[in-house]
Design a protein that fits this description.
Layout lengths: L28 H22 L29 H4 L13 E4 L4 H12 L12 E5 L3 H7 L11 E4 L6 H10 L12 E4 L11 E4 L4 H16 L6 E5 L3 H4 L1 H9 L3 E4 L6 H9 L5 E4 L7 H8 L5 E4 L4 H10 L15 E6 L3 H7 L11 E4 L7 H9 L3 E2 L10 E5 L7 H11 L2 E2 L5
Parallel strand pairs: 1-13, 2-3, 2-4, 4-5, 6-7, 6-8, 8-9, 10-11, 10-13, 12-14
Helix pairs in contact: 1-3, 1-5, 3-5, 3-12, 4-6, 4-12, 6-9
Amino acid sequence: MIPKRPINRDVPNPEPPPEPERKTEPKSPAPKLLAALVVLAVVFIVVAIVGSSGGRDEGTSEGAPAPAPAAAKNGGGEPASQASEALGYPSFATNNTTRIGGSDSAANAAAVALAVFPSTTPAQQPSAVTLVNEEDWAGAIAASVLMAEPVRAPLLFSQPDELPEASEEALAALDPQGDKTTGGASLFAIGSVALPSGAGEATRVDSGDPASTAAQIATLRDRLFAKPPVHILVASSSSPDFAMPAAAWSARSGDPVLYADAKKLPAATAQVLKEHPKTPVFVLGPTAAISKDTFKEIEELAKRVTRVAGKGPAANALALARFHAGSFGWNVNDPGHGFVLARSDSPADAAAAAPLSASGTWGPLLLTEDAATLPSAVHDYFLDVKPGYTNDPTRAFYNRVWVIGDQDAIDLSQQAEVNELAELAKIGSEP
């Protein structure tokens, strides 16, 4: 039975791994999920210490990658990842990667929220949490802006009638109380979602089409932040895989996400743009996602409009990761950064993982398109930003990658490849 108390309270010491050749009975999914969330809340603290960047070395980022770690096996021939699954290793962590391994977006969001806000003391708890309907990926991505300063509200998923168990347990641990930065609200409820009893004050945003929901969130953002946005990001409401990278940038920057249809600009989006005529607008996605005609409609309302795009979802995410124009864009073109890797066919995971891009090792969302294979463009990008050192590895910059989803989403071989690509490499020595 899952205890009816915050899952980060009275965390027990990890049990030792099983003896070789001893097989255990399979456990029910709920205790495994609980164990994973507990481990992740603790692992985050460790990662924050050992994964932080040191001083820059004069070497380049070139050099041969370290060998990929082989999948160890225990005495009975069973993969070690299965034997130690309850401890979250190596399924959840390598020396350069950490996996948020939920079986769905609700579990992933709960784990991310506790990784960013361990909540073992009141100072580690967020003032508010955002609840979004599990089916509303567009509302969830738009709500990622509420993770930005000064609000810093992580996102959990809900259903109209009840909270998923992972969300309920995480919310009990996070225990938001509201403050002046949240307008007194402890919850932001996006659409039709169940609210727990005794949850405190909730600010509701009506659900509707993606453009209308995002426009309401943008208005809420302006009120809470008490200032207009520095930039506005327009994403596709019909191609969620092209919209996904917007969540990470919005959480990091505080720039609101609005939506455009493939061939027209919705009235709700146009109204927000009219309210901010001097704010630069960045359109995320190729013409297949947001057409030239729609782009022209935006140009009629905004002083400056720029398209950031790649041909496919993975390339599109890389385009935003590399892009910069003034203060807009990640501009991640060198070593020493955090990254988040998720599946392109799980848009809700982009919102679930967004707090990781606004804390810790702050980094862009990258996309992979199947469980087994890292896209070649993403592989090459990791090589471009691979960290290196000459004499002293403790004075180098390091890369760190969060992997989102269980092995059905991104398998261990792909995680091992990413770990190898992120590994610090010796590239020579100084005389």
